[in-house]
Amino acid sequence: MAPSSINRCRMTATFSSALKRGRAFLTPTSSSTAVPRLADSFSKAPEGGLFPKVDPAIDGEDCDHDCESCSIKYPAKFKIDEDDNLYGHVNAWATHILVATGKTDWVRDVSDEKGSVMEAVRDCGIEPSNGKLMLSASNMPPPYEHHSPSDPTTVLLLPAFTIVGNVTPISVPDLIKNHINPAPTSTTPFHSQIPKPPPPDISSLSLDAVPSTRSDDTVPAQTPTASPSNFITRPCPHRYLILLCSQKTRDARCGQSAPLLRREFERHLRPLGLYRDLQDERPGGVGIYFISHVGGHKYSANLMIYRRGGVEAMDAAERDGSERNGHANSQGQVLGNGKIEGHGITSGNEATAGGPNGWMPPGGSHGKENSVGMGEGSQCIWLARVRPEDCEGIVKHTILKGKVIKPDRQLRGGFDRERGLVSW
């Protein structure tokens, strides 16, 4: 046989062997389950594997019970789809921005609002380099009382938990390049170092007109910092975020359910000292925002919970304290009044401290190291079919512990950056 023929035979045999090994590696066996791997080593969690379910032996016998004291009810004709399997059908997203509009309802597609930041995000021609951007209009108050779509407004960037102020439609390309692109994403490993962008030239910018963010005389203000396009950035003050779809122009059930759920969440959060209204910027607590359509309105109510990470010890202290009807403050002390003061956010240094990954928005500074300070978001838990009687359990177990109560019926998806898991 000619040498060239021998070489071709050897190459064919080698390729065939490699193909067989690849098939064997990708084929599940009786002792293992093949899990799709993402490029940055994240795994698609199987149903039941993304977030832990409450356990009566650990979380109390009534952990999976509906609230018995709930008096708020949906309208009698509030009917939704109860048959579809929800888990794993939401599309992947990398970053999520909430645009402050001061409204609870919008045009059908918020990107169609003429002259708005939302329209500019769609039409500017620049796609984020770090993955898909989820865009939501929100009821966050804009900086001006009589706000028009083209006026400067505020954007909340997630999972970075960073507020970017003074955003205009014309500055959206800079927002994407200088804030969204370098920001952590849903599939950024939580404990890795994220390269920080070079500091911008802010020598020509003035901060004299920056409004104070203090909510009262006893709370230290978040320190704003300037960045390109005269953006003003600061950390989001809240420890947790609840996002409720309220867009009735897409589905009347969203417009009905969101305000009712907010009232019920407020009823359970206030006794714990965790409720924060739209003007309350005390460190810690739970911010509740209405947002535009996220899909799946036939499964109303849709609810997204973003949780900050890197404070496992504080969460453990809170759980231990709640069982004694007392709660740990930011120094780990138990308060007898049943309130969680600070709730994992210490005052002072965290206003300019970076997240646990060291990432800071452009123009920010690290300040002193603070391992339990203003951390990035590590989880997003996306629920649907939420009813008012679910709110108590969601506060106790989902918000404070990261556990789900009715995963088979309610869990649509989400991500866990600390465990390297996603639902897509």
Can you put this structure into words, describing what you see?
With 424 residues, the chain is an alpha+beta fold. 21% of the residues lie in helices and 17% in strands. The protein is built from eight helices and 16 strands. It has helices at 3-26, 56-59, 117-123, 172-180, 252-269, 312-323, 391-401, 407-410, and strands at residues 43-44, 95-100, 133-138, 153-158, 162-167, 225-227, 231-235, 240-245, 275-276, 286-291, 303-308, 327-328, 334-335, 377-383, 411-416, 421-422. The strands form three sheets. Strands 1-16-15-14-11-8-10-9 form an eight-stranded mixed beta sheet. β4 (153-158) and β5 form a beta hairpin. The longest helix has 24 residues, at 3-26. The chain is globular, with a radius of gyration of 23 Å. 47% of the residues are buried. The model is unreliable at 17-37, 192-221 and 313-373 (pLDDT under 50).
Strand order of the largest sheet: 1-16-15-14-11-8-10-9
Number of strands: 16
Mean pLDDT: 78
- Give the fraction of residues assigned to helices: 10-25%
Main structural class: alpha+beta
Question: In this structure, how is the largest beta sheet organized?
Answer: 8 strands, mixed
Q: List the secondary-structure elements in sequence, H or E.
A: HEHEHEEEHEEEHEEEHEEEHHEE
Span from first to last CA? 52 Å
User: What are the segments in which pLDDT stays under 50 over at least 5 consecutive residues?
Assistant: 17-37, 192-221, 313-373
